[in-house]
Amino acid sequence: xxxxxxxxxxTAAVSGMAAAxxxxxxxxxxxxxxxxxxxxIGEPAPMPHLLGIDDLDAAQVVRILDTAEQLxxxxxxxxxxxxxxRGKVVCNLFLEDxxxxxxxxxxxxxxxxxxxxxxxxxxxxxxxxxxxxxTALTLDAMGVDCVVVRSGSSGAPRQLARYLxxxxxxxxxxxxxxxxxxxxxxxxxxxxxxxxxxxxxxxVGDLLHSRVARSEVQALNLLGAKVSVxxxxxxxxxxxxxxxxxxxxxxxxxxxxxxxxxLLRVQRERMHRAFxxxxxxxxxxxxxxxxxxGLLGDHAIVMHPGPMNRGVEITGExxxxxxxxxxxxxxxxxxxxxxxxxxxxxxxxxxxxEAR
Amino acid sequence: MPGPARILAADDxxxxxxxxxxxxxxxxxxAHDLVLVGIQTRGLPLARRLSSLITEIEGTEVPTGAxxxxxxxxDLGRRQPKSLHPTDVPVDISGRTVVLVDDVLxxxxxxxxxxxxxxxxxxxxxxRLVVLVDRGHRELPIRADHVGKNLPTAYGDxxxxxxxxxxxxxxxxxxPSTEGEGR
Lengths: 356, 183
Known about the structure:
- The complex is a heterodimer of chains A (356) and B (183).
- Chain A is an alpha/beta fold and 356 residues long.
- Chain A is 38% helix and 12% strand.
- Chain A has helices at 5-23, 58-71, 99-111, 129-142, 156-163, 179-193, 211-222, 251-254, 279-286, 290-293, 316-319, 326-347, and strands at residues 89-94, 115-120, 146-151, 168-173, 200-204, 226-230, 246-247, 260-263, 301-303.
- Chain A is globular, with a radius of gyration of 20 Å.
- Chain B has a single domain (9-75, 84-154), classed as Rossmann fold.
- Chain B is built from 4 helices and 8 strands; from the N terminus they run E-H-E-H-E-E-H-E-E-E-H-E.
- In chain B, the strands form 2 sheets. A 5-stranded parallel sheet of chain B has the order 3-2-4-5-6. In chain B, strands 1-8-7 form a 3-stranded antiparallel sheet.
- In chain B, helix 1 crosses helix 2 (43-58).
- Chain A binds chain B through residues 19, 27-32, 34-37, 39-40, 43, 46, 63, 66-67, 70-71, 73, 77, 79, 82-85, 112, 342-343, 345-349, 351-356, and chain B through 40-41, 44, 48, 63-66, 68, 71-72, 75-81, 83-90, 106-107, 109, 116, 120, 139, 165, 179-183.
């Protein structure tokens, strides 16, 4: 990259904010006053797959966010689909259950007029080794154009990318990556705060088991935000020092300084391993409640990837207050996934014909 | 390879736009029911200029909007995806005369996409097409109602309309080449 992607981040974020102001009352801004976003300076490299944020550079992230910004209003139009991916088949290969993510991808593909094939491997043995390869070859033989894969095994999407010639989109793999979650989060932050360069985000909770946190930190670092983390010592991965984050011991201490509080889900299924004494203890030390809300600056927002455990990492009061943008994250998730599908599938096939 | 040649200067472009504004008003018998829709990206500033010229000539404001055709194109996967731009038409187009404005008419594929994109927004009474430059080489049965300048070109030539708002200057340049680009 020779161009400074920050410059573009700024312009894009400014137009993003302008759109955010009017977005709730549909995209009915007078055409007179608004200019189109600046052309991307130094075209970002095409993405063959979306396997993790660690594969992307800042320009590619900004292109995804800018594309999502333009796709967002489609959802609120009377006709909420565009014909862009008509005739394309997107396969949702969900080797691990995740209804919310699958529905979001499903809707994203349908708004772009793609055919959606839902392949869930629940109860079958397709998650490892040779049989995983056979699943891949089956999808290939069926002629799918893109595979959205969710797996409990870290690295499964990358493996799939080796077997198939079509774009692979990682919808979460093991403890490794969840790139679209990170992208929809930074998209939501950008709509509220403008450019994220120099902004301060604190991530609170189970960083050890969280693919969201890993992707989130990488995306925020790419966009130049400062990231602090607060977590029970037992839920801090040993390599966290190398993530480019600041470790903070006391949540109260950091709250007045941050622009975003990002709460991670307490994964109840992991509670039996006794990572922390009790959920009451957790919410006292690391939970977001009304008192902590009062410590935040006036502009700061509260985010959560869902599903929430009310009363553990977040109280009902906080979840329902207007500083919490959790439902907005869900809405934005569809636009961001549309952007990823569009960019992956629109690029597929290469430049066989010049543009006219 | 010879460098780009300037085919039209800024004042040529200004005179053409003024004539196009008059033509439009004559064909429509006034500014009544008109909506100008500029195709992203260079059609938009041209539509805005036509709009202010019409206001100047006729004394009426004409609603002006922007249309991005990228999501409606049929050449997806044949080239790198273009950046998306806003689609933003401020009024209901149903029953009105929509004037599509673009910089260069070439294969006609952008206009086909624009017609599809427009139909998602409503059902116009009529759709008219105004282009600054018609360079020929149509691949679809599409023609413009009002043309700034007909410009005979070779298929691979590159014709570029420059507008002050995006390029810092007005004009039309041509680059003879074997590599086609633009749209």
